[in-house]
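ligand=zinc ion
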Amino acid sequence: MGDSALLPCFVCGDVLTNAVPDVENQPHGGTEFRTYGCYGSTFWDSFDNQELVLNICDGCLRERTDRLAVRTPSRGFDGTLVHFGDAEA
Ligand SMILES: [Zn+2]
């Protein structure tokens, strides 16, 4: 634990600082993404609850909103998935 988040931005490689002290990975100006993977991936599909973790900085997210979607869990069992710009706040 330290000033730097555990991981740099997955896209641009920038080092991210932690938003709060004494945490392992709480990027300031970025988001930590976690996944168990999914059926269909030939890279990551965890069967023992291991998570794949990556950080993406806010700048890289903003530059690529056309590649993002938002899932709203309250709108169905798995939620409704809509493209980022079409999501209601
Ligand atoms: Zn970045």
